[in-house]
Amino acid sequence: ALLVGPPLDSQTGRVDTPLRNLQTGKSEMQVAATEFEVLQFAPTAGAGGDGLSTVAMRPLTGRTHQLRRHAAQSLGRPILGDSKYGDGDDSEGLFLSAVELELPRLDNDTETRVFKAEEPAKFQAKRDAQSIEVARE
């Protein structure tokens, strides 16, 4: 995920903020946990310390919009392009992508299968655009 805002205070951590159930007619709070690791920070030109943080996020529970809500509400850094929980323009889409999934094997209770994908090209393009803007100042 690309998160918008100043660098996070911690490079790794865990968010354990409960989230309200978003289903119609339900309002109870649900346990929600997300681990995160900051991989990179790219400052934004003229933004007084703001920028884009590339963050690996690992949901330990599966709540509706969990990563988006934990990023914006608990970390104070919305995901780039999140017009629902951030205040950003969503014309380029949400900068959130699964690059690795680990699933239990159906034929074996102790083993898992891992599926990996490349980060979408638009992530690097956005970081490159940030560094070009900073170099021009």
Helix content: 10-25%
- Overall shape: it is globular
- Kindly report the spatial arrangement of strands forming the biggest sheet: 1-6-5-2
Number of strands: 8
β-strand amount? 25-35%
Class from helix and strand fractions: alpha+beta
Largest beta sheet, briefly?
A: 4 strands, antiparallel
- Uncertain stretches: none
Descriptive labels:
137 residues; alpha+beta; 4-stranded antiparallel beta sheet
Can you put this structure into words, describing what you see?
The protein is an alpha+beta fold and 137 residues long. The chain has two helices and eight strands. The strands form three sheets. Strands 1-6-5-2 form a four-stranded antiparallel sheet. A two-stranded antiparallel sheet has the order 3-4. The longest helix is centred in the last third of the chain and has 16 residues, at 121-136. The chain starts with a strand and ends with a helix. The model has no long low-confidence stretch (mean pLDDT 90).
